[in-house]
Design goal:
Order of helices and strands: HEEEEEEEEEEEEEEEEEH
Structural class: mainly beta
Helix content: under 10%
CATH architecture: Beta Barrel
Number of helices: 2
Largest sheet: 9 strands, antiparallel
Length: 260
């Protein structure tokens, strides 16, 4: 499989809008009751290292604490990107990188009531100006987070098509008080539909706010992928989710280590 997106998603671009920009501020008048980890359950502290990222302009993403001062997330969560992603095109998809100091790391199951843990000071991103096959980033924090045990990242997972993963993210859950925006949800035993060299595909599982969230191997508890993008609407019967494989982030970790 040359690229998951060009074969699966961009072939449908005439019918589907593929969104990859940081999520817009929550509008309770238009929020869908299904915009989150679909068919998931409240995480309730099961994955404390999966945290909400408050973005400049009111957007929200998900990130994973992978070191005392490091958060793994999606590249499009720390950058301004084009509104539609066409992986068959060679055009740049990154407009500019955001000021990392404007990104805030939040702790808690509900982003609306979460406490500020830290703020960004630097983002480490791939050299590519494209998101396809490279939608990962590290956010370096302004302080160490010692109260939460970081998640491990598996750069060579023994996993593939048909294997289960656990997905965690802060997505919209509608406008009611019982299903607010930015609540941490999880869904276990989601099967990988297609496994590629740099990305893998699942069915409809993640929506707005879940970008940057981890796919976790339930056997090891380690991160094997980062949520990149999906079809719109995300809860369509024909929707898919695309995840950047964890080994793509290895060079970013090497850069973070060499900068210490």
């Amino acid at each position: 499989m040359r690229t998951v997106v060009s074969l699966v998603v961009c072939a449908l671009s005439a019918l589907l809008s593929i969104s990859c920009a940081p999520e817009d501020p929550f509008d309770p008048d238009t929020a869908s009751t299904a915009d989150a980890i679909l068919y998931g359950t409240r995480d309730r502290g099961t994955h404390p290292a999966v945290l909400a990222l408050a973005l400049p302009g009111g957007g929200l993403c998900t990130g994973s604490l992978v070191g005392p001062k490091l958060v793994l997330t999606a590249r499009h969560c720390v950058s301004d990107v084009v509104s539609s992603i066409d992986c068959s095109s060679s055009a740049p998809q990154i407009i500019r990188d955001l000021d990392p100091r404007a990104i805030t790391l939040l702790a808690g199951d509900d982003a609306r009531t979460a406490t500020v843990l830290a703020r960004g000071v630097r983002s480490i991103v791939p050299r590519s100006r494209r998101l396809c096959n490279a939608d990962v980033a590290l956010l370096v924090l302004d302080r160490e987070v010692r109260a939460i045990t970081p998640l491990r990242v598996d750069f060579a997972p023994r996993i593939g098509t048909g294997d289960p993963v656990t997905l965690v993210g802060f997505g919209a859950r509608g406008a009611s008080a019982r299903s607010p925006y930015g609540v941490r949800y999880r869904r276990a035993s989601v099967r990988i539909a297609e496994w590629g060299a740099s990305e893998f595909v699942t069915g409809p599982v993640a929506c707005s706010g879940d970008s940057g969230g981890p796919a976790i191997d339930p056997r090891t508890g380690a991160i094997v992928g980062v949520h990149s993008r999906g079809t719109d609407p995300c809860n369509s019967a024909f929707a898919i989710g695309t995840w950047t494989r964890s080994h793509i982030a290895r060079a970013l970790f090497d850069s973070a280590a060499s900068a210490r």
